[in-house]
C-alpha cells in the first residue's frame, strides 16, 4: 500500500512517471531548439506548422482518450476521417458548405453508431469491429469517389475548416483548443466523464454501482467516429479536396498520442491535456526529424524508437 | 471450547428491548429459488425489524447469499414476495431494491481501483457545482465527514487501488451507507478488517441502529455475531431453521442448528490409519509474503492433512507457497527429508509437488480445449520427441487417466467446458497425476460440484493416499475435511492454531456404526476449534 506523500518533492519522486510526457516534451523541445536553431525550428512559422500538422491527430486523440478510458479501442478513426473528406467534398459540390458540414458529421455519427451497436449489442470486441470498419470505410470512400480526388470550391469552408487564420493564428489551433477544453471538462467534471473512467477502471464494479456500461461504450464509440469525421472535415478544408487516402494510418499516431499522454490502454485512466501534449510531441518529432534532413525511412525508425522509450518510461513497474 | 455462555451475556447486554411491535424494515415471504433444477431456497420467510442487527447464519450452500441476492434484486425469486419498509417490491431488480432503500456491500466488487475514495463513494451521485459540473472538493469533504463519523482513517483523495484490504472494505461500507439506506446488508464485512477496525465498525453500526436502520449481518465468526446482533436467523440446505433473539441462542446451539442432522451427504470413507510411511513434506516455520505466518507441520506418505479455517485464514496462500506460486519469505520446506528451495512453480514440479488450484475455471483448465490437451498439458515435454507431440502417447495417457479417475466424457476430444463440474475437476486432478507427483495439494477441489461427485473426489483422495501419496487438502466444508483427512490443521489470520488428529474429534460415546451422528458430532467439535482459533487470532492482533 502506498500512502500519499505530503511533500510536493516527495510526491514528484513517486509520481514522476505520470509527468514523463511533459518532461519528455520539454527535453525534446530544448534539444531541437539547440540543434536545429539554424534550420529554423524556432521560427514562429515552423512552430505554427507543427500545430497545423498536429490538429487533426489531436482532435481524434481527444476522443480516443474517452474510448481508451472506457476500456475500448477504435482502429477505424483514420479511415473514417478519409471517408468524411469524400462525403464532405461531394456534399459541398452538390448542395454547398452547410450541407457539407452536415454530411461530414452524419458520416461520423452513422459509423460510430454502427461500431457501437456491433460492440455492445452483437458483442464483437471493439478491436475487431473497428478493424473491420477500417476496411469498410476506406472501401466506401474509394467506391463513391471512384478513387479520384473531389475538389472543394468553397473558400469559406476551406477557411473555417483548415486553411484560414485570424491575426496570424491558424483556425486549426482554435479547433484544437476548443476540442481540448471541452474534452477536458467533460472527462474530468461531468457525470458522463466519470462514468467513462469508472467503466474502464472496473466494469463489474461500475455495473454494480448502477452504471449502464454498454450505453457508455456505445457513446464513446460514437464520439470517436464523430471526432474522426470532424478531423476529416479539417483535412478536406486544409487540402481543399476530399480523397480516400487522407487520414490513412492516423489511428496509430492517435493511439500513440493518447498513450504517450498517460492514458491507459487497459482503461480507467486518461487525461486530455496529456493527450494533446502527446499529439504535439509526435508532431514536433516529425517536424524535427524532417528539419534534420533524415530520409523518410530513417524518420520512421527514429520516431518509433522515441515513442517506445517514452511509453516504457511512463510504465509503472510492478 | 464451549465459550458460548460468556459471549451470550455480552450480547444480551448490547441488545435493546425489541418487541414484535417494532415496524418491519424487510418482510420476505415464502421465497423459493432454483437454479437449473437445483433448489437453492425453498419457502424461506424472513422478517427484519427496523433498528436491529439481524445475523444470518448457515454453512456453505445454506442459501445465505442467494436470499441476499434476492433481497438485493440480483436474483428474481421463483415465488414469494418482498416488502421493504411497508412497500411491496413489484418488480425485483437491483434498481428497485436500491430505490426502496436496500444497500449492500459487495465484498469489494463495487469499487473502481482507478478512481479516488471520494469519487467511488459518490459514484453516479456526484456533487455538482456551477454549470452542473462535478465538484470533487465537496465530495471529498463529505466523504471525510462520513469517515470521521466512523472514526476511521481513510484519505478521501487516495486512489482505491492504493488502499489496503481493510481500508477498501471500510470504503465499501461507507459507500453503502452514504446512499441513505434503510436496510444495510453486510456480507462478511470484517473478513479483511483488523480488530481495531472491527470495533469502530461495530460502534458505527450501533449509531445506524439508533437511527432505525436495519442491518443484516452475515459472518462465519460467531464471536462477532454474539457481540453485535439482536436476533439471528439460521438457514440450512436452502430452508429456514430458526429465527430467535441472540439471548436464546448460545453458541453451541447455533452450531448445532447450522450443522444440523445429516440426512444426506457424505458417507464416511474408510481411512487407512496406523501404517504411516516416511515424512514426504515438512514445513518448518514457513512464512509467506503477507500470510501465512510461521507454519510448521509434516505430511507422511499415505496421509491426508486438512487445512481448516475461514476465508482469509491463509489456507490458499499456504498452498501457493508450497507450490512455488508465491514463494516463502522465510522458513524451510523439506521434501523427502531434504531442504528444498521452491522459488517458482517449476521448482515445485521438479520436487514432485502438484497443486490443484482453487479457481478451477481460470487456474485449472483451459475450458475450450479438449480433455486430452488439458490432461497432457503438464507433461508435454515427456510425451514429445524432437519438439513434436506424440499423438499416440497423448491418447494413451489421456485414456489411462480417464479410466483411472472414471471421468465421464463422451470422448477424449470433447471440450472440457462441456463436462460437469465434478468431471472438470477430475481432469485437473488427472493433469497433475500424469506428472506422477509424490505430494498433492488440493485447494477446494469440491467447490461448486454436486454431492455425488464430491463423494467420488473424496474417495479418490483417499485412494491416492493409500497409493502412497502425501496430500494437503483444503476445504471450507468441515464434513469433507472430517471425511477425507487423517489430521486437520486449523488456521486463522494466517497463523496455525491447532494440529488435530482426526480421531480426537470423534465422540467415543457415540456408537461407531451411527456414522451420520458421529460425523455431526465431530463437525461441531471442529467448528468450535475454528471459532476458538478465530478468537485467539483476533486477540493476538491487538
The biggest chain-chain interface is: A-B, 28 and 25 residues
Question: How many individual helices of chain B?
Answer: 18
The assigned structural class of chain B equals alpha/beta
Biggest β-sheet: strands ordered side by side in the sheet of chain A: 1-4
The major sheet of chain A is characterized as: 2 strands, antiparallel
Q: How is this structure best described in words?
A:
The complex is a heterodimer of chains A (318) and B (542). Chain A is mainly alpha-helical and 318 residues long. Chain A has a domain at 56-269. Chain A is 75% helix and 3% strand. Chain A contains 14 helices and four strands. Chain A has helices at residues 8-15, 20-35, 44-69, 77-95, 97-122, 126-145, 155-163, 171-189, 191-201, 203-208, 213-239, 250-260, 272-291, 296-314, and strands spanning 150-151, 165-166, 169-170, 241-242. A two-stranded antiparallel ribbon of chain A has the order 1-4. In chain A, helix 3 (44-69) packs parallel to helix 8 (171-189) and helix 13 (272-291) runs antiparallel to helix 14. In chain A, 50% of the residues are buried. The model of chain A is unreliable at 1-7 (pLDDT under 50). Chain B is built from 18 helices and 22 strands. Chain B has 542 residues and is an alpha/beta fold. The longest helix of chain B is centred in the last third of the chain and has 27 residues, at 515-541. The radius of gyration of chain B is 25 Å and the shape is globular. Chain B has four domains: 1-101 and 181-189 and 214-260, P-loop containing nucleotide triphosphate hydrolases (Rossmann fold, 3-Layer(aba) Sandwich); 108-180, no CATH class; 277-352 and 438-542, Rossmann fold; 361-436, no CATH class. Chain B has helices at 4-14, 64-71, 94-99, 117-121, 136-149, 165-177, 195-210, 222-228, 251-259, 315-322, 345-350, 360-364, 371-375, 391-404, 421-433, 451-466, 478-484, 515-541; strands spanning 24-35, 38-49, 53-57, 79-84, 87-88, 102-104, 183-187, 214-218, 231-236, 239-245, 279-287, 295-300, 304-308, 330-335, 338-339, 353-356, 384-385, 388-389, 439-443, 470-474, 487-492, 495-501. In chain B, helix 1 runs parallel beside helix 8, helix 9 (251-259) packs across helix 18 and helix 17 crosses helix 18 (515-541). The interface between A and B is medium-sized, with 28 and 25 residues.
